[in-house]
Design a protein that fits this description.
By secondary structure, the chain is α/β, with parallel strands linked by helices. The chain has a single domain, classed as Rossmann fold, CATH 3.40.50.12280. About 40% of the residues lie in helices and about 15% in strands. The protein is built from six helices and eight strands. It has a six-stranded parallel β-sheet with strand order 2-1-3-5-7-8. A two-stranded antiparallel ribbon has the order 4-6. Helix 5 links the parallel strand 7 (about 120) and strand 8. Helix 5 packs across helix 6 (about 155-174). The chain is globular and about 45 Å long.
Amino acid sequence: MGFFKDLLHKSRMKSPWLIHFDCGSCNGCDIEILACLTPVYDVERFGILNIGNPKHADILVVSGTVNYRNAKALKNIYDQMPEPKAVIAIGACGTSGGVFREAYNVLGGVDKVIPVDVYVPGCPAKPEAIIDGVVLALEKLKERQPAKETEPLVADLKKAREFYENREDRQVTG
């Protein structure tokens, strides 16, 4: 039985699937997440696919501020995901509650409800930083055995900016 578990783990690392959940935001981060799927950024080159069913997802990407009303839905989606799983909090709202954090019905960032593995700062977060966050989450999944806790990471905006600038240079020079 160990052979099949190892085979399943290796196949999931080669082509992870992610699910996006918006807790309630201005939709700035949602637009940037969708921009990652366009040919300009082409996140599918890493084998990453966006799906709609949490029972098949490896990575949960969360944007927006968590409030009392959607906290249960977020926890439910997280609980439906198989182990090992990773969570990425996108944008200022997802990481800390953003501009809405002082509102009466806001709990704060995603980490108030579920454990977060990667934080991607920004308002809205840049597509390069989101891709870097997904790659960091993939590294977390590779080192993680089911139900093993690890230290959260923060996406490196400098590395993402260099990636974007190099991409522009390649487009200009051909």
